[in-house]
Amino acid sequence: MVLSTTDMFKAKKIILFFVIFLFACSQKALKDSRFENLIIDAQKNIENGNYSKALILIKDAIKLDSSQSIAFLVRGKINSLLENDSSAIKDYTKASHLNPQNTGAYFDQGVSYSLMDRDDLAINCFNEAIRTKTEGSLIFETSNNDLLIFERQIDVTMPALRFYRGKSFYNLKRDSLSLEDFLYCINTNYNKSNSLLYAGVLLLNKGVLEKGCLYLREAYFFRAEDGIRDISKFCKSTSN
Length: 240
Description:
The chain is mainly α.
């Protein structure tokens, strides 16, 4: 069978289309691989305390692909470690805008606000982080196994979210809401010594002496040394 000139031209166009398509796919895969490697290298430098080097790597990753939430999350973490809280908050905000399901971005933003004594704003962030857990947690698509491991490491558990929100409620003297969060943490065995300590103090504030003192003694048993003062001050009458 002999193809006509028109048929040959159409065949060449189809072949050319597939060549261009395959080239574009290979370029995207190469770009994705470079991006993922930059994220992993940055994380390794963070772990080794090389924050300046990590920051350079993350900036390169953002130049390569500024649409990826994880890059801004990691840069925010670096800025937090460098005590650049305002810059960190901007990065966490960008990360959450790019991916509204980014639990870690909301959580880290909340921690930064809390460190700046803005617990009212911190609570809003922790609430958003908790929302992502009830709607479905952070998901990344990646071909790099090391990056998958890293992404799982930076996820934040519900008990951690409730603990830090509880601390912000505590700082704002919103005792009932704070107590709910710390009781949740006790029931899930998260940071149990400090959760028992906070819950014990809050119960004492509410006049629930017996249970409050019980929690303080348990906190001391779990090496929460700060519980000693409150035990000696409030729990003499119920001491064993």
